[in-house]
Amino acid sequence: MPDTAQAGSTAPSVQAQVRHQQRLDALCAATLRALSGQSGLHYRGRKLWQGHTLLPSFAPHLHPQAEAVPAPGDGPGAPPAPAHADDLASFRGAADGVALRLRFSDRALHQQLRPALPMARRVFDLLEQYRAEAMVPEVWPGVRANMRHRFEAWSQAFVRARLHESAQGILLLTVATICRARVTGDPVPEALQDLLEGTRFGLAPRIGHALAGLRRSRHHQADYAVHALAIGAVVAALVDTQADSSKPAARARDEDGEEDAWLQIWVDFEADSEPGFASAPTQRDSPEGAPDAYCAFTTAYDRVVDASALVRTEQLASLRATLDVSVAQAAVSPGLLARQLQARLALPEVDGWDSGQESGRIDGSRLGQLIASPQERRLFRTEHIAPHTECALSVLVDCSGSMKTHALALATALDVLLRALERAGVQTELLGYTTGAWNGGRALRDWRRAGKPAAPGRLNELCHLVFKDQASPYRSARRSLAALLKPELFRECVDGEALRWASARLQAQDVRRRILLVVSDGSPMDGATALANDPHYLDRHLQSTAAHIEAQGQIELRGVGVGLDLSAYYQRSVVLDLAGQTTRQVLAEVLGVLGAAL
Fold first, then answer.
1. Packing angle between helix 407-423 and helix 583-594, nearest 10 degrees?
2. Average pLDDT over residues 115-135
3. From 131, 248, 285, 532, which residue has the greatest number of CB atoms within 10 Å?
4. C-beta of residue 439 within 8 angstroms of C-beta of residue 472
5. Tell me, what's the pLDDT at 16?
6. Element (H, E) at 55
7. Quick check: 341 and 421 in contact, CB under 8 A?
């Protein structure tokens, strides 16, 4: 039997990490928008986007880590050094640096002048970042201090990770440090001066003239680029010389910028070592355009069904009994939850007048009192403001095979949530999505009979499930909710089309506020579609569909990841640990994402 106490004790720390990262992302995005003067900047999947465009990685020191990353030990069997996480000032400094890059650098000109060689291109990009940082106005001393702090924290982490112990590593650290000092006017960090002195002395005759030119021309991007290109060429030549002397037979590098493993850490030396929940992948292609570019080979076998119709009456009664026991054990008060939900979802409205006030608008019906009693002061009235929950909320559940293990915990939380929402006056709907078959079914068969045409689009039978519709009260739909426990309903998932279907149903509701809550434990997955199309075909459609709904602004989209961070798809999301959290804790997390500010 698992140690539930231990599991419950570890869950809050993981949840805290995710919430902390989301708060940092929101604060940094606000700083970016304010300093750069560019709207539409936001973080998604821990990557920076401008609208639907994924922005590049401008420089290695602009990527602080919220979680601690241990440094390697002193020997093969030695334990790792103590872990270090970057502080808030590092995140602020990185955001300030990116904002200045967006504000003071001409991206089109920079792309035009970039060299072809990967190493020279990396150095050129870095030097342009330093130029942007040197443009900070004198009236922003805090921004300058933040960026200096961030660079020093990055350089210390570089040394802690022992990346300076190779010839290439110490060369790159030296170039990064002395170039920034010369361009921005900030001194070389004291802790690095002795470490870099030898390499710095050897570099001086090679790049000294260009280094002086960087400072003089920092206000003119094109003139500055001449000196930056010269430095990049020198560094690239030195790197090639060092690599040729150490690995003469391993110098294969293609024109697309594929680099050796040591060069990858120049961009991100702390890559892929984050603890906690996984994150949904952010695809290489941005979700540009409307989701109409997506297609299906055939829709002949797609269906929308009442979930209870797929379960035998006797089995449904048994599943409902199992769910009732789980709900009773959860011991969550629907009434208390309803009051908390109403506080988050209700909107203030004028609901009559409060008479007999000492200030406000004159109440004509009380003027007679003034004549009878000149000292009377309660002659005014004020508008009575009362909360009204004019809201519709739809829950869309991923019914893929991997969700079967979470079915009981999820059904328990949703049962309590729907009951509380109804008490709070919210219209509710519980929907699900799966496929009619594994590995394509009849849709795949038709494609094969048609000669397997290229790029067929979606190749499976959609099965959209209705566990509870908006018109049905909880009492009449409670038996249908138990269908969520039937294992045979869980197959594959095509998230983008399900999201579009659920949002269309919600859009038809005549209410002031609409919320769509998507519960999923992974990226879209349909084997037949992935094999016949681009592997990221379904992911991109989900991203574009979610971005399209959020851009319209008529539906508030929320993601609930079951053991997975869904921020790559949804701007507002939360992560749940259904195996380690109680129903009360799960509902508290859902309350938090429902009450997120617009």
1. 50
2. 92
3. 131
4. no
5. 61
6. none
7. yes
d(CA 396, CA 595): 18
* C-alpha span between 208 and 210 (Å, rounded): 6
d(CA 397, CA 561): 11
Residue 12 has pLDDT above 80, yes or no: no
Rounded Cα gap, residues 474 and 570, in angstroms: 28
Quote the tokens at residue 226: 């001449």
568, burial (CB in 10 Å: exposed 0-12, middle 13-18, buried 19+): buried
CATH of span 301-331+389-594: 3.40.50.410
Q: Is the pLDDT of residue 63 over 80?
A: yes
pLDDT at 250: 44
DSSP string, 563-595: SEE-TTT-SSEEEE-TTTS-HHHHHHHHHHHHT
Three-state DSSP at 507 gives: helix
Task: Name the one residue in this structure whose structure tokens are 């002397």.
Answer: 245
Q: Where are the domains of the chain?
A: 56-269, 301-331+389-594, 355-387
Cα–Cα distance, 314 to 182 (Å, whole number):
78
The Cα angle at residue 20 between residues 264 and 141, in degrees rounded to 5: 75
**Token pair of 343, please?**
């506080």
Tell me which H or E stretch contains 381.
strand 380-388
Task: Quick: pLDDT tens for 331-374.
Answer: 888 888 888 888 777 766 656 676 767 777 777 777 777 667 77
DSSP-derived secondary structure for 236-304? HHHHHHHHHHH-TT-----TT----HHHHHHH-TTTT---SSEEPPPPSS---S-GGG--BS--TT-EE
Instruction: Give me Rg for the CA atoms of the chain.
Output: 30
Nearest-angstrom CA–CA distance, 169 and 270: 14
Contacts of 406 (CB under 8 A, 6+ apart): 521, 562, 578, 579
Q: How many residues does the chain have?
A: 598
Q: Is pTM beyond 0.70 here?
A: no
What pLDDT digit, counting tens, does each position of 280-329 carry? Answer: 655 544 444 444 578 999 999 999 999 999 999 999 999 999 999 999 99
Give the C-alpha separation, 180 to 186, whole Å: 7
**Closest by CA position to 581, among listed 338, 334, 402, 330:** 330
- Is the C-alpha dihedral spanning 251, 255, 256, 257 positive or negative? positive
